[in-house]
Automatic annotation (TrEMBL):
SUPFAM superfamilies given in the database record: UDP-Glycosyltransferase/glycogen phosphorylase
Source species of the chain: Paractinoplanes tereljensis
Listed GO MF terms: glycosyltransferase activity
Source domain of life: Bacteria
Keyword presence, Transferase: yes
Protein name (Swiss-Prot/TrEMBL): Glycosyl transferase family 1
Pfam families: Glyco_transf_4, Glycos_transf_1
Keywords: Glycosyltransferase, Transferase
High-level lineage: Bacteria, Bacillati, Actinomycetota, Actinomycetes, Micromonosporales
Keyword Transferase recorded: yes
One Gene Ontology term from the biological process aspect of the record: carbohydrate derivative biosynthetic process
Residue ranges constituting the Glycosyltransferase subfamily 4-like N-terminal domain according to the UniProt record: 22-180
Listed PANTHER family: SULFOQUINOVOSYL TRANSFERASE SQD2
Domain Glycosyl transferase family: 189-337
Length: 366
């Protein structure tokens, strides 16, 4: 694929920078970095404070989320007045794309708001939108109206099927893991849980499962719902349950790779489950709730055991068996890593993505 000018539109909530706010932000960060490394000019439209915005227009710096009282902060709501600032700012960014359409080859949209979809036909630039979520009511009509034949990607077959039930077709392109940033680890005795700390990620059940195994649990991630953390997590810290806060990527990879087993505990229909692929890339086995796209990421890997969603006792049993069988066995860990990277390596996904972006029918998108 010849070098292109690509605008990547991020969600409106968190800056695209390390430590990553969540899997979606990590995926967008990797996307920008990967496309630039392959010679493309990439402009990032994202919340102010993001990396990669040094040479972009002012219109691509969207308002930051500021909570008057951080104790009220959640990932499912916005502070009063934020959307009244953020949505016009996003519209201004789309106006910039329309005015400069002759100098932009593609828009790679990861926004969870409908504006880029509803305006796609009027931008004068091909738009690819990735579906990272279940069919949100505010997005479904926009996706239908856009009539994006060949321009919608879904992060899993499960997510694609959910959207298909609402009349929206998409092509499956799973998320990916940078092998160099998630190296093989030596394993250890402790369990690990990492990700956004919000109710739907089920950390409290990972804590319960860890207690049942008798193994320490190390927790890393950003608190995305302060009331949930204060009520359901903080009282149970200590005595082998340690919260390390949000970690930069090298420290996080060391933590995960130095663990006996990763616990993955979504209490919703997880669209993908990037933490599963990341843990496996370090060789660390995964005990997880079987929900949404988690099973697809697990595939047939012997280093993954899936249990019924919400069953902490079954999760504890699965984690203990994996920790004993795989925790420090370097051959097992190497096989788990090789199998994960064969399916989810960023390098392989980059080539697939460029092929998709360079569709011969792209002119018909506009």
């Amino acid at each position: 694929m010849n070098a292109r000018t690509i605008v990547v539109i991020a969600p409106l909530r968190h800056p695209i920078r390390e430590p990553h706010a969540g899997g979606l932000e990590a995926m967008v960060w990797d996307r920008v970095r990967m496309l630039r490394a392959r010679g493309h000019r990439v402009l990032l439209c994202a919340v102010a404070g993001s990396q990669f915005q040094e040479d972009g227009p002012a219109e691509f710096r969207l308002p930051a989320v500021v909570w008057p009282d951080e104790r009220d902060a959640t990932d499912s709501t916005f502070p009063p007045g934020h959307l009244e600032r953020a949505i016009p700012a996003l519209e201004a960014a789309l106006d910039f794309i329309r005015r400069n359409a002759a100098r932009i080859d593609l828009v790679d949209n990861h926004s969870l708001h409908p504006q880029p979809l509803t305006r796609a036909r009027r931008l004068g630039v091909p738009v690819v939108t990735t579906l990272h979520t279940p069919p949100l009511p505010r997005l479904v009509p926009a996706a239908r109206a856009a009539e994006h034949h060949g321009r919608l990607l879904a992060v899993s077959a499960y997510t694609a099927a959910e959207w298909r039930e609402h009349g929206v077709e998409s092509q499956v392109m799973p998320n990916a893991v940078d092998a160099g940033r998630w190296p093989l680890g030596s394993g250890g005795r402790d369990l690990v849980w990492f990700g956004r700390i919000v109710p739907e990620k089920g950390l409290h059940l990972a804590v319960r499962a860890a207690r049942l195994t008798g193994r320490p649990l190390r927790i890393a991630g950003r608190v995305g719902d302060v009331p949930y953390f204060q009520e359901h997590i903080r009282p149970f810290l200590g005595d082998g349950i340690d919260y390390l806060g949000p970690l930069g990527q090298p420290a996080l990879a060391d933590l995960v790779g130095g663990s006996a087993c990763a616990l993955v505990t979504p209490l919703w229909q997880e669209p993908f489950g990037l933490v599963v692929a990341e843990a496996l890339a370090t060789g660390t086995p995964v005990a997880a709730f079987d929900t949404g796209g988690i099973g697809e990421v697990a595939g047939t890997a012997s280093a993954v055991r899936l249990v019924r969603m919400g069953d902490a006792e079954a999760l504890a049993e699965a984690a203990e068996r994996l920790a004993v069988a795989h925790g420090r066995d370097q051959q097992c860990r190497s096989r788990a890593r090789a199998a994960a990277l064969a399916r989810f390596s960023l390098e392989h996904r980059a080539a697939e993505l460029e092929t998709f972006f360079d569709l011969s029918g792209a002119d018909a998108w506009v």
